[in-house]
Specification:
Order of helices and strands: EHEHEHEHEHHEHHEHEHEHEH
Bound molecules: D-glutamic acid
Length: 288
Amino acid sequence: MSYPTNKNLPIGIFDSGMGGLTVLRALQNTLPHENFIYLGDTARLPYGTKSAETVREYALNACDVFMQRGVKAIVVACNTATGPALPALQEKFHPIPVIGVILPGVNAILSGANPQGPYVVLATEGTVKWHAYRDALTVLDPSRKIMEWPCSLLVALAEEGWCEGELVQNILRRLLQPLFDTLQGEQPACLLLGCTHFPVFADAIRQVVPNIPVIDPATMVAQQLKSLLSIHEIESSTNEKGTVEFLATDGIERFARVAPIFLGYDLKPEQVQLVALDFSEQRKKKAS
Ligand code: DGL
């Protein structure tokens, strides 16, 4: 694979579904002249309850779409996929730069959390099980307690577009009460939204758990991408407003209907393209 010399190629953004649109929104705000291709692997969502091997395979397979279309960088806008798949994606697509969301998440904690109390990361079952946050945080701040707390159910609610109201607040209470029981009165230094589907619940979480910083790392991801483009000297050379191509592996009408909750602007179904992933190689590998 050769290095991207065309600065006006798009940047690929990948998530299991619509959660990564919360990252896209921050990227568009910070980098308004860049073009993006967003891919949601809606046919295989959720990733958070699957094994690390399956998630790695899905991510490697899905990101081939970016290679077919041509991109100058890739953002894995999915915490669950970043843990098990980032090194494999970086190796596969080298020299095209590939970044994930865990490191920006860690930096967002270090700059936004209160000075005392445990760092709490709300994430999918997979991210919690693979300890991607704990491993990265203990290197930088070994003295602080870290709690990774599973909230996979929120992914399904977010994909339904249910992110506010009494029912959502009751579900949040049910998910978070055992966390606070475990903490036995200790006040968390922050609640990091360690799944890109969770920022749509930020207001509801603040209502249920007031006075604790609720941190969305998306702006930090945008800052990291901005520095990366500058280091590689591949920033867009135009002053025109950037474009976005939206791709999904299933349910484009549904994608367009629910996307505004994550994106903050409307999408029409005709703006979303259905992409067929080639699973045959994977099947052959599994069968052998
Ligand atoms: N949005 C993904 C993340 O950031 C996970 C959603 C899923 O379970 O597929 O972890």
